[in-house]
Amino acid sequence: DVEVSKLSFNAGNTVTAIPTDSRDILVEGSPNFTIRDNYVTGGTFVGIQTRLSSGKIQGNYITQVGCGTCILPGNAYFPANVLYSGNRSVNNYFGGVLLNGGSTASELFPRFSGGIFDRLSAVIDNNDLSDSNSNTSPGQGFGIRVMAVRYDPPNLGSSSNVTATISNNKIANNKIGVLIDAGFPYRTIASVPDTTLFSGTLTLSLAGNTVGGNLQTPALISFTRGSAALVPSQLTSGTNQWKYLEHSIFDITDPGGALNGYWFDHPVSDPDGRILQNILRINGVQIPNGRFVP
Fold it and tell me: What does the alpha-carbon distance between residue 264 and residue 98 come to, in Å, rounded to a whole number?
């Protein structure tokens, strides 16, 4: 068991000078962790990060970092079942909390190298995920983000699963309230083609959330990277280009309509000609292919 509680972390950086891959709290390979009642700040890339781990993140105050909390996946051998409750993750550069359904091995523990981590189960309840709106980059500045994949070359996996209950959260005054997207589906990375075809299944249940006053949209739902949905030229130009997921399912239950007014990017085909056969379902109704991103 691992417990980190009642501590103050301040890396001393500003959010305009964040060191890449820096973290205040990192937990990997723990079957039962607790991160509780900490103060986390100081311009690290991630305030709290967990991977290959199950446990609880409760009662923390996280502000002025990059990603307030990044919760990454596990697999059958290292399950990732995480409760994220009663936290304030506010005024961060990238966003409040991120759930990632697929990634490759840990860079910190060589015994995990070569592993594929493709499943995450999370409960996100009674948090304040607000005021992340200072980043001018497209797709950044979210209250909560749920993304399918981050498999950096050399890719070992291509699919992912996230099951999440998102309830009773305040998600206000961000650029994007809730971002649901593909994550990092590379077409090229550093101008090198990546031929991997990516897929993901996101099963999200929302209830009792307050989503309001977000500057661009209450929600963006996209089967490619969120920034490419906002700036479609990223699909075909630049040193990093993005493609669409295929054979993927985004199944969202939102009976209270907190995401009403959402923007979405759900085309029939990718620019490379693939027929994608993705499914977007909201409250049991399959949404026709199309695009609405003003």
Answer: 19
